[in-house]
Specification:
Helix content is about 0%, strand content about 45%. With about 130 residues, it is mainly beta.
Length: about 130
Amino acid sequence: QLQLVESGGGLVQPGGSLRLSCAASGFTLDYYAIGWFRQVPGNEREGLSCITSNAGSTKYADSVKGRFTISRDNGKNTVYLQMNSLKPEDTAVYYCAAGGALDGTTWCLSPYEYDYWGQGTQVTVSS
């Protein structure tokens, strides 16, 4: 069974940090681009960051640029999202996704480019 599982979410104070993990089971992430997204109820899913299969390229949404960093460890079949300087408006459910057909980063912040999704992890930024 192909599965992505996010972990690392939780409650953090403004200005704090969290590191999210996206672990794959049932398939190897080596040949997939990985994206991180978030969603607040009533809003569309927002693309935050993506990384190509060989980690050669990354892309960030303006809302997180300079604060979030995406990385991958293909040996551990895991992708990470380091989130620093968190703000209350970062509160959302965070999802990772794997896309097998993505080539480069041009469209990698669009949720329609991805084949597999995790179940999400809640991040709450509040004092």
